[in-house]
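User: Quick sanity check before I run a bigger batch. Here is a single chain. Can you write out its predicted 3D structure?
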Amino acid sequence: MDALTASMALLRLEGLGPARYWQLLDHFGSPDRALLQLPQAMLSKLPVRAQSQWREFCRLGAQSELLEWVQGERARCVQRGVQLVCHSDSDYPPLLMEISRPPPLLYLRGPRAILALPQIAIVGARRATSAGLDNARSFAMELARSGFAITSGLALGVDAAAHRGALRGTGATIAVLGSGVDCIYPRQNRALADEILAAGGAILSELPLESGAEAKNFPRRNRIISGLSMGVLLVEAALRSGSLITARLALEQNREVFAIPGSIHNPMARGCHHLIREGATLVETSGDVVGQLGGLLAEPSATEPAPAILLDDRQRRLLLAMQGGPRSIEQLAGETGEGPGELMALLLQMELEGLLEPLPGGYQLTVRGAACCCEGEGVAS
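Assistant: Done. Predicted structure follows.
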């Protein structure tokens, strides 16, 4: 039995969530061994239906209700264009893997490469002020143009404004749901979800297909939003709000946390002010965020020679498009024919290899990147 099948079967057992899943994995080392040898002490703590499902699996194996559901779910994913990303996959988001009890399994609509992009979460109030919505859109647009993917929860208010800002900046954006990826919530944002996917963005959830939006799902969703991201930007929030919880989760996960201050007479600014008093960075422009997070991106050592790089056709085409000087992301998309998600993943890869560097709204060649353009074989030395 492969790891994905075993993981899906374990998570299908009612009452066996990520916490118990990781306890089992720590003990048994693999999900298939954990499924086959589920300890009686843990089984007795699960609901009666889960106990019955597991015992039937032990008797019937592939013909059990449990494994038939897994095979059916995998088939539905294929039919609906949904990819399954297991924690054992090499492209599982590394930052998310660092948090306590990360989701063992992710359901993804959109390109898998987008999960490798450096992400900034932008969150805030559903009933934000017009100024708050403007801030969310403008910060998201500028950060997207600086090379960051914008991650949020597709909620009304600040979340939706952040996604739209990223789209306006022709950058990548990821919507993390508290429902199945095929059950867009709220309904008012279904058109926005379609726009995100059409632009090369992604819809993500840890919940099975056809899962509805329930209150208990949103704290789990929030830990994914912060866990995927290098930092979280709080735009507006009341003192008791899900957005403030997301920001606090980010602090617990050792992520950078930023907050936009507001008027002392605006109740939607109180959450930001509270967070700033707790140590969040006060920001007034997107440059404040980029300045603090940009240094976290890997760069080649200045004291060691960079290893040789063999360029593929896509990389070479991108570098040639930049020979004339800095290019905006819109220009690069037009000149290379790359889709938004694929382009952002390619730009990140080449930035990490020291071939180009981000500018506000675009990119330019580094000395090393320019040297690559001059190499007949496309090899930097």
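The chain is about 45% helix and 15% strand.

User: Great, the batch can go ahead then.
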